[in-house]
Specification:
Helix content is 36%, strand content 26%. The protein is α+β, with helices and mostly antiparallel strands. The strands form five sheets. A six-stranded antiparallel sheet has the order 17-18-20-21-22-19. Strands 4-8-7-6-5 form a five-stranded mixed sheet, sandwiched between helices. It comes from Oceanobacillus piezotolerans. This is CBS domain-containing protein. GO terms for molecular function: DNA binding; DNA-binding transcription factor activity.
């Protein structure tokens, strides 16, 4: 039987893109409580089915394709620049391909304005009209309004016309920052990016027998399968050690391991790899907010993704990328060097605590890659940051392996500046063998 929560999600999926959604209306249409409607709408927002926009409301949007994640929707632009939608609300779900700053003559401006773009301009009514006719949305800076006929044109074309109190330069900087942040997010791999989908997943039902396990094992060569109830919710896991020596007619729910470890599609690759190493798990079920099976992720999937990440160049550069780029191997074996750049400092112009931590963890990681050909995930980190380090100082990082086993390592790290020790760290780490 389908739950009320699932009914609401299916109802939202059936709505047209651009349709406005409210808790009260959903509750009335489907005869559910306001609380149930609210929770389902929040789940739909997590799934990328709806978007909530200040002063507009919640609307049904088109789910973004992974390859277009770096593109912003006009609805996201409204939130970024704290804007007000003057017209064309039905087009808020659309994505912009580029933005054009209208600081030029009208004819020159129109040469750059094309369908799917966003024209950022002040109180220039003719530019507003021509941009909409070209298929572009309009962002009016300086808090200006526009004429009613232009708002009507925006509604007809389903292209947003937005007003913001910020100036053109500030707005452009804010949008650029948002696009850059999206590029960084794009490089973060989530479980949903690598998991085997439900359509290709082998699973067992609680009232099936052990003979079904043997059938799945023969067809897939896997030995560990999730167990679901009649609502497709994950309630257990069955592996070869659970069924060994048991009669093939015994029910699965009599031998399964209950309350298994699960992850969601938005769990990061780093998190799931840590869980698999720490708990010795080969396969983890992927579930949604209702605990229903969405697929599985295997240790092999995780290792392949980790190797792929190491081969790919970074596009959106984080502070870790900057630290990693500046950290080079010294002429002396087992020592790494780094120069303190402006991006690595705090407001006082000295090396920030966060960057110091990143330096010692990155140096430790490289040491283990050289010695054991293994990656590490930090389990415990103790830092002694003794002295401030000035900008443009040269640091020498000396990681020393104190103890190592099959699954763990203990590393002591010392950081020097001009032969003076400026900080130390002690790391306990799990090994991820390549």
């Amino acid at each position: 039987m389908v739950t009320k929560h699932e009914q609401i999600i299916q109802h939202i999926i059936s709505l047209e893109v651009g349709h406005k959604i409210s808790v009260r209306q959903i509750a009335k249409d489907l005869n559910v409580s306001d609380g149930t409607a609210y929770r389902a709408i929040k789940e739909a927002e997590n799934q990328g089915l709806v978007s909530t926009i200040e002063r507009v409301g919640t609307i049904r949007i088109e789910k973004k394709k992974k390859e277009n994640i770096e593109r912003l929707t006009f609805a996201e632009i409204v939130n970024i620049i704290d804007g007000q939608v003057l017209g064309g609300k039905a087009g808020l779900y659309k994505t912009l391909s580029k933005f054009v700053i209208g600081a030029m003559q009208l004819d020159a401006m129109m040469r750059y304005t094309e369908a799917g773009s966003l024209l950022i301009v002040g109180n220039r009514l003719k530019a507003h009209e021509l941009a909409l006719k070209e298929g572009a949305a309009v962002l009016i800076t300086g808090g200006f309004d526009t004429e009613e006929q232009i708002k009507q044109l925006a509604d007809e074309k389903e292209l947003p016309i937005i007003s913001t109190s910020y100036d053109t330069f500030t707005v452009a900087a804010m949008i650029n920052r948002a696009i850059y942040d999206q590029l960084i997010k794009k490089e973060i791999v989530f479980v949903g990016d690598i998991a085997t989908p439900i359509e290709e997943t082998s699973y067992l039902r609680s009232k099936e027998t052990i003979s079904k396990w043997y059938e799945l094992n023969e067809n897939s060569t896997h030995t560990r399968f999730p167990v679901v109830d009649e609502k497709m919710r994950v309630i257990g896991m069955v592996s070869s050690k659970d069924i060994v020596g048991k009669d093939k007619n015994v029910l699965i729910d009599k031998v399964m391991s209950k309350k298994p470890q699960v992850v969601q599609s938005k769990t990061s690759l780093a998190s799931v790899s840590h869980t698999m190493v720490w708990q010795g798990i080969e396969v983890i079920p992927v579930v949604n907010g209702s605990h229903q099976l969405q697929g599985v992720v295997s240790r092999q999937d995780v290792l392949k993704a980790l190797q792929q990440i190491q081969r790919q160049p970074q596009v959106g550069e984080t502070i870790e990328d900057i630290v990693s780029r500046n950290l080079v191997t010294s002429e002396e074996e087992g020592i790494f060097e780094s120069e303190v750049t402006p991006q690595m400092t705090n407001q006082l112009g000295t090396l920030s605590n966060g960057v110091f931590t990143t330096l010692i963890t990155e140096a430790s990681s490289r040491l283990m890659q050289q010695m054991k050909r293994a990656d590490i995930t930090i389990e415990n980190l103790t830092v002694y940051f003794n002295k401030p380090v000035q900008i443009e100082s040269k640091l020498f990082i000396k990681p020393e392996l104190l103890d190592v086993g099959r699954l763990y390592a203990k590393i002591d790290v010392e950081v020097y500046n001009e032969n003076t020790i400026v900080g130390k760290g002690l790391i306990m780490a799990q090994l991820i063998n390549r």
